[in-house]
């Protein structure tokens, strides 16, 4: 079986809700990273055999196969096909999985994988909301309601169930959140994200123009006291905006090839896809599946957990 190599990667900076990227159409934002990944790799666009994009809320501006629409909004030829996948929070990861599987099997030699969401324009859960408005009702159906009677599937509830199960306090979560913001802020100051970020032309609220090239969601001035002062998101008083994933606008892409693709492009690998894994878990707690998925992945890759970050 062939190997899967990544020969290029690019992303926009992450925009916060109603932030700098709020006026960008997601199709156009995705087209930007498509053009940039081709430019950075020097690939002949005609050699690209598929574009696979992850997108969770495929409704409104993100409906009608946004991957294909992004191709048509880019400089790629019309002959390049595209498809959009939804594995919820793992959608772009699944796009990479499908791209890697395609080149490893030899079905394709050169594939672009990526993802896009402009959550300022298409809100979280927008596809489910649209279904309700169209008279489609709940997305869960009678079978799920019977299996999980009275359950309201909610990530915030799931996250707090996890915190309670493993004994994490509000202070524990605040300290972890603070460390995360500090690491991201330090990495930004050190220029560690500069190579991967594509600056985006924007018009600001005051009418001025500029280039957006730094993640907006990082709380560079965060402190434990400031995080402790944030209003909790539920009665359990564990989660806050400072310790939750933000509403984000952005797009990213990677180019995935096999050995034949390397030869066609004359490219040098930047990374190799060593292993892939998936797992399902309790849909009520809903956020624990990465644990068995990671365990499975490490076994397949022949890597122990103490070496995973090295």
What is the topology?
Layout: E1 5-11, E2 15-16, H1 26-41, E3 50-54, H2 66-73, E4 82-85, H3 91-105, E5 110-118, H4 126-133, H5 141-147, H6 155-165, H7 170-189, E6 200-203, E7 209-212, H8 224-228, E8 248-257, H9 259-265, E9 271-272, H10 290-301
Structure notes:
With 310 residues, the protein is an alpha+beta fold. It has a domain at 1-124 and 247-273: Peroxisomal Thiolase, Chain A, domain 1. 35% of the residues lie in helices and 15% in strands. Strand 6 (200-203) and strand 7 (209-212) form a beta hairpin. Helix 1 packs across helix 2 (66-73). The mean pLDDT is 94.
The CATH first-level class of the domain at 1-124 and 247-273 comes to Alpha Beta
* The named CATH superfamily of the domain at 1-124 and 247-273: Thiolase/Chalcone synthase
Helicity range: 25-40%
Structural class: alpha+beta
What is the count of DSSP helices, taking H or I runs of 4+ residues? 10
Mean pLDDT: 94
Cα radius of gyration in angstroms: 21 Å
- Taken from the alpha-carbon principal axes, the silhouette is globular
Summarize the helix and strand pattern as letters: EEHEHEHEHHHHEEHEHEH
Distance between the termini: 27 Å
CATH topology of the domain at 1-124 and 247-273: Peroxisomal Thiolase, Chain A, domain 1
Summarize the biggest pleated sheet. 7 strands, mixed
Weakly predicted, low-confidence segments: none
Give the name of the CATH architecture of the domain at 1-124 and 247-273: 3-Layer(aba) Sandwich
Beta percentage is 15-25%
Number of strands: 9
């Amino acid at each position: 079986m062939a190997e899967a190599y990544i020969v290029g990667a690019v992303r926009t900076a992450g925009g916060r809700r109603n932030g700098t990227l709020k006026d960008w159409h997601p199709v156009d934002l995705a087209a930007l990273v498509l053009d940039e990944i081709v430019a950075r790799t020097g690939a002949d666009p005609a050699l690209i055999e598929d574009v696979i994009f992850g997108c969770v809320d495929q409704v409104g501006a993100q409906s009608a196969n946004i991957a294909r629409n992004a191709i048509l909004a880019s400089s790629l030829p019309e002959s390049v096909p595209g498809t959009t996948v939804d594995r919820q929070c793992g959608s772009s990861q699944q796009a990479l999985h499908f791209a890697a599987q395609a080149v490893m099997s030899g079905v394709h030699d050169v594939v672009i994988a990526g993802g896009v969401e402009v959550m300022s324009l298409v809100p979280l859960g927008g596809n489910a909301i649209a279904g309700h408005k169209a008279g489609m009702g709940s997305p869960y159906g009678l079978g799920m309601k019977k299996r999980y009677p009275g359950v309201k599937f909610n990530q915030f509830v799931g996250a707090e169930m996890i915190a309670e199960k493993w004994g994490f306090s509000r202070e524990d979560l605040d300290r972890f959140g603070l460390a995360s913001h500090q690491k991201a802020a330090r990495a930004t100051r050190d220029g560690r994200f500069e190579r991967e970020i594509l600056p985006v032309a924007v018009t600001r609220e005051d009418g001025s123009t500029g280039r957006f090239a730094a993640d907006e969601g990082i709380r560079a001035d965060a402190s434990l006291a400031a995080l402790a002062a944030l209003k909790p998101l539920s009665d359990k008083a564990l989660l806050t905006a400072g310790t939750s994933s933000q509403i984000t606008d952005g797009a990213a892409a990677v180019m995935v090839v096999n050995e034949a693709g390397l030869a066609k492009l004359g490219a040098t690998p930047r990374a190799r896809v060593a292993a892939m894994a998936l797992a399902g878990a309790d849909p009520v707690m809903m956020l624990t599946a990465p644990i068995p998925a990671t365990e499975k992945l490490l076994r397949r890759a022949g890597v122990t957990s103490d070496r995973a970050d090295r």
